Amino acid sequence: MQYRESPAPPASDPEGTLRWLRDRELIKNLYRRYAFGVDSIDFEIVRSVFHPDCRVIGTAEEGDLNGYLTGIEEALHQWDATMHFVGNQYIEIDGDRGHVESWVVGYHMEAEDSPLEHLVLGLRYQDDLVRDGEDWKIIRRETAKQWHTGTFPRPFVGPPQYPRRGRESHS
After folding, report:
1. In the chain, where the domains are located
2. For 14-149, CATH number?
3. What angle do CA 82, 46, 100 make, to 5 degrees?
């Protein structure tokens, strides 16, 4: 673990400062979209934050993007609800490439009739990004579990007996 973050341009460079602020906001928005997409099980949104050639390291779904997303989507149907919170982020930008370290807490709620405890995960995402037109995309993700409470890994006991909350239309 190493602290990496790009300093702001000098105040005497308003164009550079505006570009720096815009890039940081676009990058932070990737993580808001990711959390929203995961928690609403909208994998069109989730896929939109990743470059098609993305590689994933440190998860059960390690490998290419399709395997990673398929594994996450299958797992999400086991819980009654989830909520992913993106906390501290350290953003380093170098031209059209970037690196982001994000600290995330994922809440995974079991159905009331489940024999399992709720699962709360503390994760650290270390992502390499590339500029993609006017946006940014994650091209490499390394995930590290920092801690957890509850049953992990979750044994399969089946999905909740009723439709999962959060699947309502958000359009």
Report:
1. 14-149
2. 3.10.450.50
3. 95
